[in-house]
Amino acid sequence: MGDQNITARIGKPLVLNCKGAPKKPPQQLEWKLNTGRTEAWKVLSPQGDPWDSVARVLPNGSLLLPAVGIQDEGTFRCRATSRSGKETKSNYRVRVYQIPGKPEIVDPASELMAGVPNKVGTCVSEGGYPAGTLNWLLDGKTLIPDGKGVSVKEETKRHPKTGLFTLHSELMVTPARGGALHPTFSCSFTPGLPRRRALHTAPIQLRVWSERRGGEGPNVGEHMSEYAVPLKEVQLVVEPEGGAVAPGGTVTLTCEAPAQPPPQIHWIKDGRPLPLPPGPMLLLPEVGPEDQGTYSCVATHPSHGPQESRAVSVSIIETGEEGTTAGSVEGPGLETLALTLGILGGLGTVALLIGVIVWHRRRQRKGQERKVPENQEEEEEERAELNQPEEPEAAESSTGGP
Q1: Is the preceding peptide bond at 373 cis, omega within 30 degrees of 0?
Q2: What CA–CA distance (Å, rounded) separates 190 from 165?
Q3: Helix ranges restricted to H, 136-190
Q4: Last residue of a domain, one of 270, 287, 316
């Protein structure tokens, strides 16, 4: 059988099973060890004495190492014979590891000068095994040393007693003129054993200054005083306004702290600092109940103490039983449709009223035109009756006399 790879943490107990061993004594088995503690194969059996508290065989045939150390790396083999005479072998390849503390950037630079080599800082990782590697990152992307604009000086030390490693990595960069004004550097430690996640330092953000034109070279102190802008007021802007959003929506918080050099921005929620790298913007995608609360930002400027912004609230808009994101989008559409129909209905009513008024006035005019001739005929008839002579009556009265 091939060796089975085993990884064990330094200082922790390790148990290796002996396959095929009878569960009850007497047991016919034998362990053989070839590690950093032995010059040749070391043989252990259930009948033998424990090996100086380094390892001992348990009643079930397994091998116990109470506290694994670097010297226990090596090969372990067990050969067991069952009561029926069947022989079984177990092979183990043991490696040990120790996770170091979180790496740190010591002696970080306060600013960089464009066009000339600058020391960014030294990344340090202590107490790891195996040694592992350190890597520098610029704005979240791995920096590859090219010997020109980026160079790294590395040093590895091993403790004489514990055997653990300490790593140093010094970064030198030459910022390009016209490049980024506020680069962010960080360092990560990658363990030597597989399936172990990397450890990252806290990022540092630096300011890149340009050389003085036509001068005798850069003067960092004068240049900074020439462009220095004090920090006056820290403002927190939330989008959407008011901080209320439907479930699953996005909220953007922007901390405005104009100053030179730019201050470091940290974020606070419900009075507690958030474990986030410094930055002027906080994005809350797909907002859920856990994102609700009161947010503020703190700006730290070299010439001032920390200054905190006013607090803003982030909340979720409650919806009905069918309250979904789609429903919140359809709502404004229905309101717009109802408003449009209302406006069209109002215009139609006004047009109808105007038509009725115009029709009624035309009818009145026609009626007056018809009545004028009739009135004139009646007046003419009345005048004719009034103007008739009375002679015929007089004549009749004269002829009818004696």
Answers
A1: no
A2: 13
A3: none
A4: 316
